[in-house]
Amino acid sequence: MYAEQSIVQSFSVNDTANPSLTYTTTEELIREAAELCTQIVLEQDTMVEIEAPVNVLFLVYQIGKLHGAGRCSRKELSCYIQVCGDIHGQYSDLLRIFNRCGYPPDCSYLFLGDYIDRGRQQLEVITLLISYKILYPECFFILRGNHECKIINKVYGFYDECKRRYSIKLYYVFQVEHAFNLILLMDLFDSLPLCSLVSGRILGMHGGLSPKLTSWSMMDDIARPLDPEDNSLAMDLLWADPDNYTQGWARNTRGVSYVFGTDVVKKFCRDMDLDLVVRAHQVVQDGYEFFADRRLVTIFSAPKYFRSFLFRMFYYSMSSV
Fold it and tell me: Serine/threonine specific protein phosphatases domain: which residues (predicted)?
């Protein structure tokens, strides 16, 4: 595991003042880590099952504590599974989460996707995350977001960052594109899991629910690597949104997937015997926002996503009891 250990060391991850990839972090080193991470995530299920006893009532109570700075010690936080929303290349804020909650393996993490695009240090974010995934595969989990798809990241910044800082070939290590006669050996983003189930009671994904998801066994039918198709279960898990003004299902104004109402969430939780749905995908001003009488929560962890937006980074903690 030389590659990922070398990368983690080269990041100087305890220093948030000037975090960056160093010149010693070569393209070959990143490529090796990405290939190892792809093998690991493909060995895990499309719906990753995470065993961690959860007290949902305590989770809701913890919202108030965690949202206030300095109210919860790192020792207390290390007992939780930290669930993080969109990061979008904001590497210094990712390090603040680790500094606040603890670094792996002392603290377990579930990331809900959208690690790249828009931010200025996308390679730092994704490379550190995949390195931790390789080092601690059973306590560090990374799901796929809609920006981990080539139709998005080819346009919104990741392609350009790879090209500017290393080479176009590095982009194709993460995202397959059958062009330029390149010999493609692997594809990390298309291999990432689509959702997670924590203790059988809390469902996590990047986007939202799907009218096609009626049993957990359906997740076993989704083969990876995967390039999601329109009107598919995978596309909904990456793109769907809750909507206060919708009853049932309606077409999404994004032009992809659906929006769904509170009635859908409550019925889904009842039918699937769930306590909570945790998702990301939408900017929420306070960093988190409840929906459907607290049966669903949206988490967003990229505080500088829009410079004109003043909202707090949020990470959601699942308490081990």
Answer: 143-148
pTM: 0.87
Provide the residue range defining the domain that includes 188. Answer: 48-68+75-319
Q: Looking at the predicted structure, is the pLDDT value of residue 49 above 60?
A: yes
State the pairing for strand pair 140-142/315-319: unpaired
**N-to-C CA span, the chain:** 33
* C-alpha 174 chain-centroid distance: 15
Phi-psi region of 110 (alpha: psi -120 to 50; beta: other; left: phi over 0): beta
Tell me whether residue 206 is one of the annotated catalytic residues. no
pLDDT tens digits, 185-207: 458 999 999 999 998 999 999 99
List b or e across 51-69, with b for residues whose CB sees 16 or more CB atoms inside 10 angstroms: ebebebeebeebbeebeee
155 inside domain: yes
CA gap 238, 240 in Å, rounded: 6
Return the structure tokens found at 127: 């490379």
Asked if residue 256 is part of any domain, the answer here is yes
What is the tens place of the pLDDT at every residue in 114-166? Answer: 999 999 899 999 999 999 999 999 999 999 999 999 999 999 999 999 999 99
Q: Active site residue: 147, 178, 206, 281, which one?
A: 147
Calpha distance 26→134 (Å, rounded): 18
DSSP code for 303? T
